[in-house]
Amino acid sequence: MKARTSRKTWILTLAALLITAFHLIPFYILLTTAIKRTGDFSSKWSFPDYVNIENFTIAWEQANLGNALVNSIIITSFAAIVLILFGSLAAYALARRTTKLNKYIYILFVGVMVIPPLTALVPLYRMVVNFGLMNTHLVAVLNNVAAFLPLTIFLYAGFIRSTIPKELEEAAKIDGANTLSIFFKIIFPLLKPITATVLIISSVYIWNDYQFAIFFLQDSSVQTLTVVLASFFGQNGSQLNLVAAAALMASLPMVIVFLFLQRFFIEGLAAGSVKG
Amino acid sequence: MVQTVTKTAVKVKNKNAKMYKKRGDSSLWWMYLPSLLIVCLFIVFPFIDGIRISFTNWNGFSQTYSYIGFDQYKRMFSDPDTWLVVKNTLLYGIGSTILQNIVGLGYALLLNQNLKIRSLTRTIIYLPVIISPLIMGYIWYFFFAYNGGALNDLFVLFGSEPVNALGNPAVNPYIIVFVNTFQFVGIAMIIYLAGLQSISKEYYEAANIDGANSWQKFKAITIPLLMPSITINLVLNIIGGLKLFDVIVALTNGGPGNASQSMSTFMYNLYFSRQDAGYAATQGVLMALIILVISMAALLYFKRKEVEA
C-alpha cells in the first residue's frame, strides 16, 4: 500500500514538474532573446555564454521606460486610492440603506459590468477631447476607476452584508457619531480583507491596461509602460532583442511585487471568488 | 435601570431616524454620488450616446453628420466581415473558456495533492496573470514568429521547413486562444483550488466506505460541490474572452486582412484607421448585445445548477 502511494506521488510530482517546465518556456525564450546581441542568429533555445547589457540600456533610453514607469506608478496608485475610497463609501450606503432608490442604483452599478468598455469608445473619445482631457493622467485615472467601480462596489457590498454586524454602527450612532466618522473609524478598518482583494486585482488590471491607455495617452510624456512598449515594438519589429529587453524590464516591477506578496495575491483572489 | 437605558437608546435612535428623514438622508445618496457620477460619465452616457451615433454616418471628427436610420445596421448584417469577426469573437470567448476550465480544473486537482513541488508550480502557472496581456502576446510572438521564432528554430533543427503560423488564417485564431488560455488559466486554477479546499473530507470518507471509485467520487461529489466555482470561472472567462484585444494586437494585429480580428480590434480599426465612427458604434452595439446575452445565459444556467446541486 505504502509503495503504491509513493509511486503515485512520484508520477504526480513528475507531471507537476513537466507542467512547470512547460509554463516556463515563454519566459526562458524571453530571457535568451533579451540578452543576445542583435547579430546573434543562434537558436532561441540555446543559452548564450555572454550577457549583452547594451540591449537593456538602449531599450531603456530609446523607449523612455523611466518616464513611462513613473506614469504607470502615478496612474495606478491614484486610481487604486480613488477606487477604494469611492467604492467602499458607495457600497456601504447601498448595502446598509436598502431604500427603493438604492436598490435601483445598486442594480445599475452591477448591470454596468456587462457593458464592454470598448463599446462606449466612440462617444467617450469625443467627450474626452471636448473636455480637454486628452493626454492627462486624470483621464486615465478616471477611466480605470469607472471600469473597475462596478466590481469594487459589488465585492464591498457583498462583504459588508455578510460580515459586518449592524449592531456596531447602531452602538456608535447612539454615541452621537455621524455617518462619515462611523464609516471611517469603525467600518472601513473592518473591510481590510476585501480592500486587499480590490487593491490587488485592480492594481494589476490598471497597471496592465492597454485598451484605454492607447486611446487617451497619445503624447509620449504621459504614456504608460504598455503604450510605450507597443510603439517601441512597432519601431523595432526587426530587432526583437531590444523589444525583449524592454518587455522584460517593463514586466519586472509587477513580477517583483507578486513574488514578495504572493500569498496576498492568491488568497485575495480566492477570498473574492468565494464571497462574490 | 436597564429598561430606561434601552428606552433612551430607542428614543435617540428614533430621533436619528427622523433627522435622516428630514434631511432626505435615509438613502445616504451622497455617499455613492461620486461613484455614480464617474460611472455615468464614463460608461453609461457614452454607451447610450454610442447607440445614437450608430444611427448616423459620422466619420469621427467632422462637426456635421446626418441621421441615416437603420442603414448602418443593414450594412452590418450584409457585411461578410461582420460574421467573420463575430465567429472569431465567439471562438476566442468560448474556446478559451472551455480550455481554461478544463486545464484549470486539471491543474487544481493535481495541486490539491500533497506534493512538495506544489507551491512552485502554482507560482509559475499564476505568473502570467500579473503580466500585461500585451507583453504576454509579445513574449509568445518571440515563440511563434516566422523569422527567428523559437518554434521555427525547433522545426529547422529537426530538418523541416519553417512555418508562418501567425500569418496563416487557418491557424492563428487558435494560437490566440492558446495564448489567452496560457495567460489566464492561473485564475481558473486558483478559484478551483479554493473551491476544492472548501469541500469537506467527510463526503469522500463516506464514499470510500460505500466503495466508490475515483471517477464516481469526482462525478458525484467534486463536480456538484464545485458548481459555484465553475459559475464564476465560466462567467469571468467568457466575458474576458469575448472582449479580447491586447493579445490580438500583439500577435497578429487582426491580420492577415481581417482573418483574426475580434469585435474589439475590428471596432478600433473602423474608428481610428477607417474614420467610420457611425459603423464602429453599430458594431459596438452588436458586441454589447452578444456579451449581454451570452453572459446572462451562462449566469442563469449555472445559477440554476447551483441551486439543484
UniProtKB/TrEMBL annotation, chain A:
Keywords: Cell membrane, Membrane, Transmembrane, Transmembrane helix, Transport. It is found in: Cell membrane. Gene3D superfamilies: MetI-like. It comes from the Bacteria. Residues 69-261 form the ABC transmembrane type-1 domain. One of its GO terms (biological process) is transmembrane transport. Belongs to the binding-protein-dependent transport system permease family. This is Carbohydrate ABC transporter permease. It comes from Jeotgalibacillus proteolyticus.
TrEMBL record, chain B:
Its main location: membrane. GO terms for cellular component: plasma membrane. One of its GO terms (biological process) is transmembrane transport. It is found in: Cell membrane. The keyword Methyltransferase does not apply. The chain crosses the membrane at residues 28-48, 90-111, 123-143, 174-194, 225-245, 277-302. Keywords: Cell membrane, Membrane, Transmembrane, Transmembrane helix, Transport. SUPFAM superfamilies: MalF N-terminal region-like, MetI-like. Residues 86-298 form the ABC transmembrane type-1 domain. This is Glycerol-3-phosphate ABC transporter permease. It comes from Jeotgalibacillus proteolyticus. The lineage of its organism: Bacteria, Bacillati, Bacillota, Bacilli, Bacillales.
